[in-house]
Design a protein that fits this description.
Layout: E1 5-9, H1 14-25, E2 29-34, H2 41-44, E3 53-57, E4 70-73, H3 80-83, H4 87-108, E5 111-117, H5 144-164, E6 168-173, E7 176-177, H6 188-197, E8 202-205, E9 211-213, E10 215-216, H7 217-228, E11 238-240, E12 245-247, H8 248-259, E13 265-268, H9 283-289, H10 297-314
Parallel strand pairs: 1-2, 1-4, 2-3, 4-5, 5-6, 6-11, 7-10, 8-13
Antiparallel strand pairs: 9-12
Length: 315
């Protein structure tokens, strides 16, 4: 079977670098495009010597001139601390990034996957969240640059599919964790682990009863590749996440147990528009992709803690 030439935008990021690695292992040519705003060369350094791997430093707001068979569009800052740093550019990255990658897919007759997000559901009024739920998003809040940006990207994908016949796939990613997360990204898993390893107070926003579902990155990447290669008629959107639901207090106590830290838990006010519940319905992914997460939270956290221990030691 001939090698596929696959473009991964945002490929030097946390999830993107794991995806690039897996696609190379499966025998593909991989082009990683990233402007390194939140992505890091260290995430892909071990891939640089592979003759079938290519790194292109470019912003997705610029036109893309690359020939490819498949496109995974992951390019956008994904943590609140980063996407709120320059909210206008975040919205542009979602919209114009989708426009440019879809234009490329149309020209190359490539199949294209959009990495959307559970944030399109906003602070949900129904729980857990199926793909049919249209969401409860504040269009003028401090998170809306990302939430609404991802929603309009989904709109563009389906309009390119209907109007131009572009072969699209749309996934909605729920909370994902694992090695190569940034220690400064403000996400709850990396926050708790870094604070615990430094024996600093573990900061919980709100009373700690708000819930999240945590999917280990290897499980997510497997689901992404299955979605890309699923039957052409299945466009999604499809939820990819782990339906195991944990409160912030449960997560904090599990991190304390694994690290053996002496950190204390402290509470701070809940940020604006922060969702109180997040849990995917994954029946569609199970049916269409034969996909279901297999890595338990405690096992995934142990691998993530080991990564951060090594990272902090060498920092």
């Amino acid at each position: 079977m001939p090698r596929k030439r696959i473009l991964v935008t945002g490929g030097a990021g946390f999830i993107g670098s794991h995806l690039c690695e897996k696609l190379l292992q499966e025998g593909n040519d991989v082009i990683c495009l990233d402007n390194l705003f939140t992505g890091r060369k260290d995430n892909i350094r071990h891939l640089m010597g592979d003759p079938y791997f290519e790194f292109v430093r470019q912003d997705l707001l610029e036109d893309i001139y690359i020939e490819c068979d498949q496109i995974y569009n992951l390019a956008c800052p994904a943590s609140p601390i980063h996407y709120q740093y320059d909210p206008i550019k975040t919205t542009k990255a979602c919209f114009i990034g989708a426009l440019h990658t879809l234009g490329l897919a149309k020209r190359c007759h490539a199949r294209i996957l959009q990495a959307s997000t559970s944030e399109v559901y906003g602070d949900p009024e129904i729980h857990p969240q199926p793909e049919s739920y249209r969401g409860s998003v504040n269009p003028i809040g401090i998170r809306s640059c990302y939430d609404e940006g991802k929603r309009v990207a989904e709109t563009l994908f389906f309009d390119y599919h209907r109007q131009h016949g572009v072969k699209i796939k749309v996934i909605r990613i729920f909370n994902t964790y694992g090695p190569r997360m940034r220690p400064d990204d403000g996400r709850v898993v990396s926050n708790f682990i870094v604070q615990a390893l430094k024996n600093q107070d573990i900061t919980i926003y709100g009373d700690g009863t708000q819930t999240r579902s945590f999917c280990y990155v290897d499980d997510l990447v497997d689901g992404m590749i299955r979605m890309m290669n699923s039957r052409e008629e299945f466009t999604g959107p499809v939820n990819l996440g782990n339906p195991g639901e944990f409160t912030m207090l449960e997560l904090a106590n599990l991190v304390l147990k694994i690290t053996g830290s002496s950190s204390k838990i402290v509470h701070l006010p809940l940020p604006q528009d922060d969702p109180t519940q997040r849990k995917p319905v994954i029946d569609l992914a199970m049916k269409e992709l034969d996909w279901c997460p297999t890595i338990k939270l405690e096992d995934g956290l142990k691998k993530t803690v080991a990564y951060f221990e090594e990272y902090l030691k060498n920092a």
